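INFO batch 0412 | record 1 of 1 | parsing
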Amino acid sequence: MIGYVTLGTNDFDKAASFYDELLAELGGKRMMEEDTFIAWSSGKDGAAVSITKPFDGKEACVGNGVMVALAANSTDLVDKVYAKAISLGAICEGKPGPRGEGGFYAGYFRDVDGNKLNVFTMPGMG
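INFO prediction complete | emitting tokens
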């Protein structure tokens, strides 16, 4: 249902490098690129994550209550992607672990611009 999610950035090169390395852990590669926009996806049928400099020329800012969730197929991959994010300069918003009932497992972080993301898995996602 979701085609892509776009996150604003104030440091395009830093954000591009962050997402190149982070999304590679999930099989993501650049699928679309312009001077002020890059999108990554793990396949032609999958959703994409993109970054952009705001079109209006104003500074990018973080949405309160907005979060992008990145799907992983195992708790080991959640741990690996979360650790990669932190090693790339992300800020911890909740270390990986079980959340609630039903086998949901996630780690939360903020990217180099302060956008909130999580990487998660749950039963049946493998």
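INFO post-check: The mean pLDDT is 95.
INFO record closed
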